[in-house]
Write a structure and sequence with these properties.
mainly alpha, rod-shaped, transmembrane, DUF1640 domain-containing protein, transmembrane helix
Length: about 80
């Protein structure tokens, strides 16, 4: 999902606060080019959450397998 950044509105807001038009436009373009590409979208966050969920599931499975293995190994050494 792409984010829309209103460079025209941003530049206008800067001009309204006393910034020269050329400087305001340059700042708006810089904000679009450098700041906006670093903002995470909902899709980015959803993918990160899915990745972490998968990692935790694999780790929990590995821990349960290791625990079961240790339990069965310990049971072999108990007197019958």
């Amino acid at each position: 999902m792409a984010l829309a950044f209103d460079t025209l509105g941003y530049a206008k807001a800067l001009r309204d606060r006393g910034i020269k038009a050329a400087d305001a436009e340059a700042m708006a373009e810089a904000a679009r080019d450098f700041i906006m590409r670093e903002i995470a979208t909902r899709e980015d966050l959803r993918q990160a959450l899915e990745t972490q969920t998968l990692r935790l599931t694999v780790r929990m499975g590995a821990m349960m397998g290791a625990t079961a293995g240790l339990l069965f190994a310990a049971l072999r050494f108990l007197p019958h």
